[in-house]
Design brief:
The protein is mainly α. It has one domain (about 1-54). The protein is about 85% helix and about 0% strand. It has helices spanning about 1-15, 25-30, 35-54. The chain starts with a helix and ends with a helix. The mean pLDDT is about 65.
Length: about 55
């Protein structure tokens, strides 16, 4: 559960900085993450989009 919150906080920071990254930089950054962390980030991305849009 602690990893979930850590990934969520990281995602918030990442989304604020995402406009400064190229697609290749985003790809390289995601490649460094472990599979579980990538999975959590994608889950949190959906949560953040849901919070922002609704």
């Amino acid at each position: 559960m602690q990893q979930l919150f850590a990934a969520f906080a990281h995602l918030i920071i990442f989304t604020h900085q995402a406009k400064y990254f190229t697609g290749f930089d985003v790809y390289q950054s995601s490649k460094r993450l472990k599979n579980m962390q990538v999975f959590l980030v994608f889950i949190n991305l959906r949560i953040v989009k849901h919070i922002i849009l609704y």
